[in-house]
Specification:
237 residues, alpha+beta, 7-stranded antiparallel β-sheet, 4-stranded antiparallel β-sheet, 6 helices, 31% helix, globular
């Protein structure tokens, strides 16, 4: 047995990732994401509880290891949560208006709707204020020119546990609307070795997190519930 063979599986995934191309690393991340997501929603019930939990923890711990050390010490994966200083009331109102105006051209992506590339959203994603804010907390980042309006505005919409693609490695997610006040759908993060983090953002609040490294989901909407968000993607340098 070689020294590498004796390493824990999580560390072996990290070493393997360093030898892969960017495309191969994305494929490995996808497989680990699908494994974690499937286990979280109850797949592999034929396995013992202990073995299923071990497999889930291995997948969750491995995901942050795929990024060549370009992540801070990983806890929940959350960088910031709250009302972000880089958005004014006028900024939020303008994005709210643009998201409503673009709803008609949103396309269904799995179980929610997405509009990409709206002019104001793309301009906001390139804001020097956002880049400075992120740089102070996680080091230099590059905007990926990805700016999406997300819509969960019919019963049963949501998204199962997953991690994001490289374009949203660091995701700045901002709530534009969630009605009614009696909310059902929520965002849940599943950081490794910790309890799930349940998040309900108020209007204008942002969540900044390493979306390519922590498994997360949007639980399903119910009748009468409507959610609109804007999501900007960044990549650590």
């Amino acid at each position: 047995m070689t020294q590498a063979d004796s390493l824990p599986l999580v560390e072996r995934f990290g070493r393997l990732s360093a030898e892969l191309t960017a495309a191969e690393r994305e494929n490995l991340k996808l497989m680990l994401s699908m494994a974690a997501g499937g286990l979280l929603v109850g797949h592999a019930r034929q396995l013992s509880d202990a073995l299923r939990q071990e497999a889930l923890e291995t997948a969750q711990r491995s995901l942050p290891k795929l990024h060549d050390g370009k992540r801070p010490a990983f806890t929940t994966g959350i960088v910031f949560r709250g009302r972000a200083p880089f958005f004014t009331d006028a900024d939020l109102a303008a994005m709210d208006e643009e998201s409503l105006a673009n709803r008609h051209r949103a396309e269904r992506f799995h179980d929610h709707y997405v509009t990409s590339g709206a002019p104001l959203a793309r301009e906001m994603a390139l804001s020097s204020d956002i880049n400075a804010f992120l740089g102070e907390r996680v080091g230099p980042v590059l905007p990926t020119y990805k700016a999406n309006y997300l819509y969960y505005d019919a019963p049963g919409l949501g998204i199962d546990p997953h991690v994001d693609k490289n374009e949203f490695a660091l995701n700045v997610l901002t709530m534009l609307e969630h009605r009614p006040d009696d909310r059902h759908s929520e965002l849940i993060l599943y950081p490794p070795d910790q309890d799930p983090v349940h998040i309900q953002l108020a209007h204008g609040e942002s969540l900044i997190f390493f979306a390519d490294s922590v498994t997360h989901q949007r639980t399903r909407t119910v009748a009468g519930e409507s959610i609109r968000l804007v999501s900007f993607g960044y990549h650590p340098i």
